[in-house]
Amino acid sequence: MKVQRSSYKILSYKIKHSYDVEEFLSSYRYLLQKAIDIIWSNIEWIEKKQRNHYLIRNGKKFERKHYYVKRLIPLIPKSREFKRSLRNTLLENWDYASHYIDSAIKVAYSIINSWRRNYLRGRRGGNKPLVKRRFIRVKETLYVYRDGKIRVTVKPREFYLEFDLSKAWFKKRVEDYDLGELILKENELIITFRKPVKETRITEYIGWDLNKCSLDGFSPKYGWIKIDLRRLYHIHRVHEVKRKKVQSIASKKPSLRAIVSKQGRRERNRAKDSIHKLTTQLSMMFPNIVHGFEDLEKQRMYTKRKRHNRDIAKQNWKQIIQYMSYKARVKLVDPYNTSSTCPMCGGKVMKLRKGQIVKCRKCGLTLDRQLCGAINIYLRMCGFPQSPSTFYHVVIKRMIPWWKMRMKALEGVTTNGDEGGDKPPMNPGGGLSLMNPKAYIDLPIPM
Ligand SMILES: [Zn+2]
């Protein structure tokens, strides 16, 4: 069954009231319970054979053993005739507006349906649900909203409740929203506001590892994505050299100080522009994606390295994450050891070949350092632990077709990953180290 996700953004607020609605609340609860009682007594119980299974070990494999149990399955009455007669029965002796009957029927069905779901999953027994709390669902047909005031009909032409929202503290926040359902309680009214939102269905995660010169992403769907940040880094380097020159002159000639600050401003603007373009491109290339990054605030606690170079890169990273969060959904993960942990077994990795490739000391998995970081960030944002079976299911299994394709494309090409000791154990052909980034996005610098 497909579940249609609500495409509304919903906000809800409470406001206090001092109306005496005791009797009204009690009557409604009685009405709701009566509706449940009637539906309950019309449930048809059907005996069904249900197939269950358990697992037994057979050597290395698990086998399913099936067995049958008899179960009583409740069939909830839903026909139009039934609902009409239910409505008519409830209308007898009901003194308030008749729309509350429809509200109560709706609530009664949702209570019974949720009981049924839990019953079928074995989470609830076969006892009739009882309404304990006192509340009234006020549908749109039971109130008017005009000039900042809500008028709820209790008894038509006799009894109304009025709530003034014109001075409510949340007024500004709900300006472009529509008023939704209300819930009346003894001392408060819960008001929901809603606004249609563009349907965004999150289907995938991408874990991004930010490096000085590249942005490396991993997701089972897109594989390894590598984005060149060298030019962005270059902007800072070039300006840094210029700045130093001008600075040393300016220290002797105060009149040149304005040039120094102008240089700095230009550098920042160019970098900003460049990051804006990058993040816009990313959010458009990978729609409906949650982008995972390392939490830089936490990273400060873990790293002790040469400050200067990292500061430039960090400045960029901070902005990349910040801008990205304006344009897409971003999730921050704990950066602890993301690039020095084996994504397959959780062991420590060592650096090979000037640090570009890492190899696990425990299981021997060998892969690009940046890819390693990206996979770890991906695993972390999904909440998966580093384990061989997770690695197989999440990384290898889904990437095999992709690897095969790449292997074909690279056939006959000697790659830098072809030294005996670097081959990952599960890929005799040297799959992981052989892999080239799928997408290589060249970032244009604004002139
Ligand atoms: Zn390992």
Coarse structural class? alpha+beta
Name the strands of the widest sheet in spatial order.
Answer: 14-13-10-11-12-18
Largest sheet: 6 strands, mixed
DSSP, total strands: 18
**Which shape, going by the Cα principal axes?**
flat
**Gyration radius, to the nearest Å?**
32 Å
Ligand inventory: zinc ion
Low-pLDDT windows of residues = 1-6, 410-447
Separate helix tally: 10
Mean pLDDT over all positions: 79
Q: Please write the CATH class name of the largest domain.
A: Alpha Beta
* CATH structural fold name of the largest domain: Nucleotidyltransferase, domain 5
Distance between the termini: 53 Å
- CATH arch. level architecture of the largest domain: 2-Layer Sandwich
Overview of the structural elements:
The structure is a single chain. The chain is α+β, with helices and mostly antiparallel strands and 447 residues long. The protein has three domains: 9-42 and 77-196, no CATH class; 46-76, no CATH class; 204-230 and 267-441, Nucleotidyltransferase, domain 5. It is 38% helix and 27% strand. It has helices at 22-41, 80-91, 99-120, 230-250, 257-285, 296-302, 307-327, 369-382, 388-409, 431-434; strands at 8-16, 44-58, 61-75, 136-138, 143-146, 149-155, 159-164, 178-184, 188-196, 204-210, 214-219, 223-228, 289-294, 329-333, 349-352, 357-360, 366-368, 439-441. The strands form five sheets. The chain has a six-stranded mixed β-sheet with strand order 14-13-10-11-12-18. The protein has a four-stranded antiparallel β-sheet with strand order 1-9-8-4. The chain has a three-stranded antiparallel β-sheet with strand order 5-6-7, with no helix packed on it. α1 crosses α3, α4 (230-250) runs antiparallel to α5 (257-285) and α5 packs across α7. The radius of gyration is 32 Å and the shape is flat. The two termini are 53 Å apart. The chain binds zinc ion. Residues 342, 344-345, 347, 360, 362-363, 365 line the site of zinc ion.
